[in-house]
Specification:
Length: 489
């Protein structure tokens, strides 16, 4: 007999599924029925030592968040009592959490396609009521609310970004806009009061008579009649290029906004704390530095939480509040890092595993060596819908076209088996706070996986990036790009 909690979880997943089924009746162009093989279809058209919470030591005395170049404008009307709250008030806080000791490959995972023909989706964020926000790199933020699909933000100043057609054999590698465009999305901590979301996007401006690219984070009102215009700029002046734009934004346990900034083609600037290139920022919803961000001295930007990054793509938190990121390396050398406020993560000085000892740089938990995973958006899964992944870090893989499942075992803990793992990192060069056991799964089942996200009711959602011109043979399919929900058989 099922427990009451199991019944409730099953009912919640049923309601979640009906939310997408309801889209069929909403009259959105091209909608199809939702099933494992058929799904909601969009129109596909173009747009006109961090052991404490939030990277602190748990009492609010660790690092803090900061602002971006040019400061912030406007006010996101966030109650002061909400921002910088104690770690212990975080709903996900569990200082006694335990990592699994089994293999995630003991179970078989499946994927239920819910939405088809998205156009290079990049990020997912959920509102507390379960509404889902999805960015498309071509210039839109979509809202799925169970009754309809709507475009709630369409940044007017964002660069034009392109995509290949569904089912196309073209693999140009570079599409219009390169790796830039409309990237990350985050939902205001007190949504819907205010009804603000945040978007990270690339834009072009003129400086000294020349066109220059930057990335920025701006807040948008989802109820506005002018979805192209932000209500405020939160972070501006992030270096941009056709590649290495970073772009993930997410709110951490203490309601600070974390922003991942790539080096923007300026690798030397990753070592300069006064530049936003190659940094992870931590700011308030209005863009001010978090009060307890690290003091890096000199003219360092106070919004910088960590530096020396190449192209950070994801940030997650362990249940005790420890922040961890996933990051693209050069020709492989992809990393998973434990984030400690003020630490230097070595780009572009050191990136070979054996060069970390004695270097003074913070070593990674995992480095792929010459093998390229191209790790993207991540989650630390705490739900029950996919038990095999509970209390593990789950990361998308672009060029590797797979899910990367990392079990992080604290020093002295019982490790999961290594026999079926890609690797179990016990080398002296690695960060000794945790042992990373890395498994891979769902190879070539979905193609290029851009992001994975957990919904409020504990499901795992995945978006693909098969129409970005870089997919391997067999992709993009006619239904790409897709939003899927993971299942466990």
């Amino acid at each position: 007999m099922q427990s009451d909690s199991t019944d409730r979880d099953a009912a919640a997943r049923g309601r979640s599924r009906r939310r997408f089924l309801a889209l069929t009746a909403a009259g959105v162009a091209g909608l199809a029925g939702c099933s494992t093989q058929t799904a909601t279809q969009t129109d596909g058209g173009g747009p006109t030592d961090g052991s404490g919470g939030d990277g602190t030591d748990g009492d609010g005395s660790g690092g803090s968040d900061g602002d971006a170049d040019g400061g912030s404008t406007g006010d996101t009307t966030t109650p002061e009592s909400v921002v910088g709250t104690p770690l212990e008030s975080w709903s996900g806080y569990d200082p006694g959490w335990e990592p699994p000791t089994s293999s995630p490959l003991d179970a078989t995972l499946g994927a239920e396609v819910l939405v088809e023909n998205l156009e290079v989706p990049w990020d997912i964020a959920f509102a507390p009521d379960g509404d889902m926000f999805v960015t498309e790199r071509v210039g839109r933020v979509l809202r799925f609310d169970g009754e309809n699909v709507s475009t709630v933000a369409e940044p007017t100043e964002a660069i034009d970004a392109g995509s290949t057609e569904p089912g196309s054999d073209e693999r140009p590698w570079w599409v219009k806009g390169g790796e830039g465009g409309t990237l990350g999305v985050a939902v205001h901590p007190t949504f819907p009061e205010p009804a603000h979301i945040f978007a990270y996007y690339t834009y072009t401006t003129t400086e000294n008579g020349e066109r220059t690219k930057y990335n920025k984070v701006a807040a948008f009102d989802v109820e506005s009649e002018t979805p192209g215009e932000p209500v405020s700029t939160v972070v501006d002046g992030i270096p941009a290029n056709s590649y290495h734009n970073g772009g993930r934004i997410t709110f951490g346990p203490r309601n600070y906004l974390w922003v991942t900034c790539g080096d923007g083609g300026q690798p030397d600037d990753a070592q300069d704390p006064s530049s936003l290139a190659g940094k992870i920022l931590r700011v308030t919803p209005s863009g001010e530095p978090a009060p307890d961000n690290p003091d890096l001295g000199g003219d360092a930007d106070p919004r910088v939480f960590t530096y020396g990054h190449r192209n950070p793509q994801g940030v997650v938190w362990l249940p005790d509040g420890t922040p961890v990121n996933s990051e693209h390396g050069p020709t492989g050398r992809d990393e998973i890092n434990r984030l400690v406020p003020g630490d230097n993560y070595s780009w572009n000085e050191v990136y070979e595993p054996d060069d970390y000892p004695g270097s003074g740089f913070h070593p990674p938990l995992f480095n792929t060596g010459a093998q390229s995973f191209a790790p993207t958006g991540s989650l630390f899964y705490t739900g029950d819908a996919v038990p095999a992944l509970r209390n593990r870090m789950v990361t998308g893989g672009l060029v590797s076209q797979q899910l990367i499942v990392t079990t992080l075992t604290p020093e002295g803990g019982t490790l999961p088996p290594a026999e079926d793992a890609y690797t179990q990192v016990t080398d002296d060069w690695s960060d000794q706070a945790y042992t990373a056991t890395v498994h891979t799964t769902m190879k070539n089942e979905l193609g290029r996986i851009r992001h994975v996200e957990q919904s409020p009711d504990g499901d795992i959602y995945v978006i693909t990036s098969n129409r970005d011109g870089r997919a391997n043979e067999g992709f993009p399919r006619e239904q790409d790009d897709v939003l899927v929900r993971l299942t466990q058989e």
